[in-house]
Design a protein that fits this description.
This protein is 34% helix and 20% strand. It has 184 residues and is an alpha+beta fold.
């Protein structure tokens, strides 16, 4: 009852903040109309943006969590040390444990409460699924070329450098389209 009274009271437009459910709790958040003013008062603190590499890494952690750095690098195809470090510094991801089953027991990374608060969600289940993003045409399906080094390692396979299409599985995962291969 008290919470509904507070949310009703502060829902009036003349308040510079609003009460919203976020990250598993409730918060007073600045209304979007006041974001620019707050950013100016706080200097460049809120104006720093994430690099493309950090955004890629953050997306991988968000959708695959808990995930190891090795798994992140396997998906991205490049080292992710710097991006992971920056995301830890900005408290968008956390170390959530160790993968006890993997050799060396690598650290596991997950999104943080700060991440949930920033995106206004309460759990990773609220993230949009890839099918939803594709349906809204926010991103275009992409063709990916096979890695030339991968084909050089196999002498018996006849490979081409043709692009392979990716599609979305029934559960929303990105998968490579596998063409029927003739076996001799």
């Amino acid at each position: 009852a008290a919470l509904s009274g507070i949310t009703e009271k502060y829902s009036a437009d003349f308040y510079p903040f609003e009460v919203r459910q976020s990250g598993g709790g409730w918060q007073f958040l600045t209304r979007p109309d006041y974001h620019k003013t707050v950013a100016q008062l706080n200097g460049d603190k809120f104006l720093k943006k994430l690099s493309a590499a950090a955004l890629e890494t953050l997306a991988i952690v968000a959708y695959k969590q808990p995930v190891t750095k090795g798994e992140i690098e396997a998906i991205r195809g490049v080292s992710s040390d710097y991006a992971v470090q920056k995301l830890l510094e900005k408290e968008l991801i956390i170390i959530s444990g160790r993968n006890e089953k993997a050799p060396g027991q690598p650290l596991l990374y997950s999104t943080s409460k700060t991440f949930m608060d920033y995106f206004g969600i309460n759990s990773a289940e609220e993230l949009p699924q890839i099918k939803e993003v594709l349906a809204e045409q926010l991103i275009e399906p992409t063709l990916i070329k096979k890695d030339a080094d991968e084909s050089a390692n196999t002498e018996t396979e006849e490979t081409t450098n043709e692009p392979e299409a990716m599609s979305v599985s029934d559960n929303g995962e990105l998968v490579m389209n596998e063409e029927d291969k003739d076996t001799d």
